[in-house]
Amino acid sequence: MLRAILFDIDGTLVDSNDFHVLAWAEAFHAAGHDFRLGEIHAQVGQGGDNFVRALLPDIADADAEALVEAHHRLFRKHYLHRLKPFPGARDLLARCRDAGLKVMLATSATREELQRHLDVLDARALVDGWSSADDVGCSKPCPDVFETAAAKAGVAPGEALAVGDTPFDIIAARAAGIATVAVRSGLFPETELQGAIALYDNVEALLTGFDDSPLNPERARAGTP
Q: Which residues form the signal peptide (predicted)?
């Protein structure tokens, strides 16, 4: 029985992926590492601990930590105030809550960034809890963020669904025993989202099609495939 929805935030509920790419590009450049924006975007969805090593596998721990901190600093300074929710994001959270589901946020963002996301979404009254990079030992694509969110919601993995925009959401959720509904709003190729059980253009499309979507608990109770 479906009891909880675990929402990724960046690229799923909030239009922030491009800003993260720019902040990472500036952080890497300042440290003497230049990557094409597409190379950086391909890693979006991972937390900083995994993000840096995906591009610089041999980097020293201290240098990796410095890059992560530079990214956070640049993102907070230049982009955090520019974030906007995707159309339908808040209404989808409310629709899930109205359907009797627990609504959790599961993100590789820092706790500080998550608090800003809550304000951007005006969602503090709509969510039951959250897990962030600060709550776990390993961020996406490790399963920790989703495992922690499910545990905080008091549900088993089979009683939850994840909603995300990147292949790292799908990998992390699968490792936690949780299926994923994916959205294309993070601008990842559809071929990289094939592990999802359903695919929508964005959360507004998911909201419009909620009754026939995997997020509808009544649909699951009726045994609809």
A: none
Tell me the C-alpha distance between 219 and 225, whole Å.
8
Is the domain 17-81 a CATH 1.10.238 member? no
> Partners of 182 in the beta sheet?
164, 199
Unique residue bearing structure tokens 């991972």: 46
Tokens standing for residue 8: 């990724």
- The H or E element spanning position 95 is helix 89-98
Query: DSSP secondary structure string, 124-172?
Result: TTT-SEEE-GGGSSS-TTSSHHHHHHHHHHT--GGGEEEEESSHHHHHH
Q: What is the DSSP string of 16-58?
A: -HHHHHHHHHHHHHHTT----HHHHHTTBTB-HHHHHHHH-TT
Among left, alpha and beta (phi > 0; psi -120 to 50; other), residue 105 is beta
CATH C-level class of 4-15+85-221: alpha beta
Pairs from 52-57 (Cβ < 8 Å, separation ≥ 24):
55/28
What is the gyration radius of the CA atoms in the chain, in angstroms? 17
- For the chain, the structural domain boundaries read 4-15+85-221, 17-81
Write the pLDDT tens digit of every residue in 24-66: 999 999 999 999 999 999 999 998 989 999 999 999 999 999 9
pLDDT at 220 over 80: no
- Quote the CA–CA distance of 129 and 150 in Å, as a whole number: 10
What pTM did the predictor assign? Answer: 0.95
| CA distances, 163 to each of 62, 72, 89, 194 (Å) | 33, 24, 12, 14
